[in-house]
């Protein structure tokens, strides 16, 4: 498995730093500690809340995509590429301790038309095989391909913490 690209790590770090700076400065202005004069309250609140969005984006990036040198028309080839991508995504989620409920598959065709398919499940994913199976089901929903696939992507979102007793059960099952 390859590590997350440096550009993603940099973007993630910038988002976290920017989010923290936005939350701290907005919080000081909203809750005292800074004289803001004639600042428009809506703008202030919007920026304060946007800081949390940057933080979540920086912390919760669990996704990857790949552009292919040749178009893919065969479902078996597309599924093999999707499996490789989902393994990278699961590795990223594992490294962050992130568990999501929503899986999104992105398909970009050779004419740059793009389709996405998402599914949200009741509880957070607990294993890489669950992610692979769900992503494959979503890909099957756009088959047969009318055009060649140039790019595939997979993301996990809708993060939620795993209760400690469930994580303990998962560890025992692996041993």
Task: Please tell me about this protein's structure.
The chain is an alpha+beta fold and 175 residues long. The protein folds into two domains: 54 residues; 112 residues, DNA polymerase, Y-family, little finger domain (Dna Ligase, domain 1, 2-Layer Sandwich). Helix content is 52%, strand content 22%. It has five helices and four strands; from the N terminus they run ααβαββαβα. The protein has a four-stranded antiparallel sheet with strand order 1-4-2-3, with helices on one face. Strand 2 and strand 3 form a beta hairpin. Helix 1 runs antiparallel to helix 2 and helix 3 packs antiparallel against helix 4. The longest helix is centred in the N-terminal third of the chain and has 26 residues. The protein is elongated, with a radius of gyration of 20 Å. The C terminus is likely disordered.
């Amino acid at each position: 498995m390859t590590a997350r690209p440096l550009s993603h790590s940099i973007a993630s770090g910038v988002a976290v730093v920017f989010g923290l700076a936005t939350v701290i400065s907005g919080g000081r202005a909203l809750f005292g500690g800074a004289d803001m004069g004639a600042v428009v309250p809506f703008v202030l609140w919007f920026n304060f809340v946007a800081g949390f969005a940057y933080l979540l984006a920086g912390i919760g990036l669990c996704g990857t995509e790949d552009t292919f040198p040749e178009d893919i028309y065969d479902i078996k080839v597309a599924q093999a590429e999707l499996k490789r991508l989902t393994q990278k995504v699961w590795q990223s989620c594992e490294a962050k301790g992130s568990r999501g409920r929503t899986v999104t598959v992105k398909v970009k065709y050779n004419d740059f038309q793009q389709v996405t398919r998402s599914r949200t499940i009741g509880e957070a994913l607990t294993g890489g095989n669950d992610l692979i199976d769900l992503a494959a089901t979503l890909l099957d929903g756009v088959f047969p391909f009318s055009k060649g696939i140039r790019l595939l992507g997979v993301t996990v979102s809708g993060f939620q913490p795993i209760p400690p007793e469930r994580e303990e059960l998962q560890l025992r099952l692996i041993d």
